[in-house]
Amino acid sequence: MASAPRTLDLLAAGAGVAAAVLGAGLGELTAAVVAPSASPFAVIGGGMIDIAPPWGKDLAISLFGTNDKAALLVGIAILLLAVAAAAGVLERRRPPWGRMILAGLGVVGAVVSMTRADADVLSPLPSFVAGAVAVIVGALLIARLRRPADAAGTATAPETPGPTRRNVLVLSGLAVVAGALAAVGSAAVRGGAQAATVVRSALRLPTPATTTPVPATAELGIDGLAPVITPSADFYRIDTALVVPQVDLSSWSLRIHGLVEEEVVVTWDDLVALPQRETVATLVCVSNEVGGDLIGTARWLGIPIRDLLARAKPTADADMVLSHSIDGFTASTPLEALTDERDALLAIGMNGEPLPIEHGFPVRMVVPGLYGYVSATKWVTELEVTQYAVAEGYWTSRGWSARGPVKPASRIDVPRAGARVAAGSTVIAGVAWHNHVGVAGVEVQIDDGAWIPAKLATAISADTWVQWSVPWDATSGTHTIRCRATSATGETQTEQRAAPAPDGATGWDELTLTVA
Ligand SMILES: Nc1nc2c(c(=O)[nH]1)N[C@H]1C(S)=C(S)[C@@H](COP(=O)(O)O)O[C@H]1N2
Ligand SMILES: [Mo]
Fold first, then answer.
1. For residue 348, what is the enclosing H or E element?
2. Contact of 422 with 412, CB cutoff 8 Å
3. Is the pLDDT of residue 422 over 80?
4. Who has greater pLDDT, 44 or 213?
């Protein structure tokens, strides 16, 4: 019985996919065991994030919210599977070109893994394993689908017999299952043996020498209103890391260098031995849209960055500190913001616990008044004292502003847009912020009525957001509600709409709802 070429192509495509799945699974397993940050998937995804155009981050966030990483990984998986299927077909028709493509993918992964900031000698190994397994398995499976040819290139044998085809199908299925099992195994290895997780859970934080009190009247306790202190589990997360960096506490250090009189290196033990300060600060992402939720407020424990910089003695020509994270991310912070009176911290604690791994364990920066991308470096390992004229941060080189002071803003949390509100007495409430400046007032406008001053909760400090509320006697019909904040300096939040890029969104938050 003759096999239609199309059937053979399908089998070859399936075998290519199976070889790639087995290779990827074993590559992930290798990474989990020997080089956690060099997962072939994360390496390729990370490379794509780094070379993405400036609007890429904005687009990803607006398309996928903060699930952009998961979406990226799924996209990469689909793309790789499509390439593997094509390689399978090619391998049957024009050997060894299919094999070459699979090998090429492995080589690309290995090369990119060596360019990552936290690369070491083992980094290329997982991609190498993935490529080698895919090439060998793919070649073995697909060879069975080819008719042996004589020296002249003329097919001599009959078409691939049915039992052989079934064999290839079964073997391909087994390879897929084995690859999936290896991937599951790699997740288990990562979860079980994550050194940082284990070390973190055993840590006891030092008690703070000084704290910022949180007055009970800072919390209005209104249902649906963001709590004044954001629980760590609900705190937004934004970073370029596909795999959260696992920092080894015993080998962690922070090096302060560049335009300094004296280079300073501090270890974890040095850090915890210093008098700790606990402050409350609101952190907001420059990508936060008007009304968005890329913002949170936490109690941060740490030591003032100014004290460490004082030891290093920046030279007079320095005007910026480029903080580096272990995975290569950088942020450019004005030197002045790290040396003036504000609570710029090298933070080790968040809401009374060691920093969660995804929020920067063991040490991150928190600088009141500045968007996260120019100040809040997580997994920080280096403070390079430099100048804006000679260096720039990760997002600045991708088109975002070099400096990122937070703009005044306010958000309506209650009622929710589209909520069903019953006529009668109810409440409108939200949060307002102008980090390190402070909020003097919030006003609310219902339909085109007069602006109504809101009642403000007690502000914890100028560094935090403040809750606000306005009683409302809701009448039936459709209503539009908007709000605006006025800063402690008298600046009123502008109505002018601006997109997040390049230095933060502006405009009034507004919602329309129907009162029954
Ligand atoms: N290492 C590292 N630190 C980083 C980032 C990053 O991509 N990598 N992103 C920054 C940005 S853009 C923001 S808004 C804050 C977010 O901090 P969070 O994830 O703890 O909320 O982290 C900052 N620190
Ligand atoms: Mo951000």
1. strand 345-350
2. no
3. yes
4. 213
Cα–Cα dist 104/107, whole Å = 5
Segment 352-376 mean pLDDT = 97
Element (DSSP H or E) covering residue 510: strand 509-515
Residue, of 52 and 259, whose pLDDT is higher: 259
**Gyration radius (Cα) of the chain, Å:** 28
Give the whole-angstrom CA distance, residue 266 versus residue 261. 16
Q: Whose CA is nearest to atom 1 of ligand 1?
A: 378
In terms of phi and psi (left: phi > 0; alpha: psi -120 to 50; beta: otherwise), the region of 291 is left
What distance in Å separates the CA atoms of residue 487 and residue 462, rounded to the nearest whole number?
10
Identify the H or E element spanning 189: helix 162-193
261, 477 Cβ separation under 8 angstroms: no
DSSP state of 288: P
Q: Which ligand is nearest to the CA of 505?
A: 2
What CA dihedral angle connects 331, 332, 335 and 341, to 10 degrees? -50
Residue 152 has pLDDT above 60, yes or no: no
Position 290 scores a pLDDT of 97
- β-pairing, 424-433 with 439-446? unpaired
The highest-confidence range among 99-108, 218-227, 242-251, by mean pLDDT, is 218-227
- Cα separation, 502 vs 207, in Å, equals 39
Check whether 241 has a pLDDT greater than 90: no
- Residue closest via CA to ligand 1's atom 19 equals 237
Chain position carrying tokens 């003036």: 340
C-alpha–C-alpha distance, residues 197 and 423, integer Å:
50
Q: Dump strand ranges (E) for 305-339.
A: 320-325, 330-334
Q: Say how far apart CA 394 and CA 117 lie, in whole Å.
A: 13
Domains (range + CATH), the chain? 5-193 (no CATH), 216-398 (3.90.420.10), 409-515 (2.60.40.650)
310: its two tokens:
């004082």
Closest by CA to 176, choosing from 81, 110, 102, is 81
**d(C-alpha 238, C-alpha 229), whole Å:** 18
**Ligand 1 center from residue 373 Cα (angstroms):** 6
Q: Which ligand is the nearest neighbour of the Cα of 393?
A: 1
* Ligand 1, pocket residues at CB < 6 Å: 235-241, 283, 285, 325, 327, 329, 359, 372-373, 376-379
SS3 of residue 152 by DSSP? coil
Q: Rounded CA gap, 230 and 241, in Å?
A: 22
Determine the Cα–Cα distance for residues 147 and 158; give it in Å rounded to an integer. Answer: 7
Rounded Cα gap, residues 320 and 334, in angstroms: 5
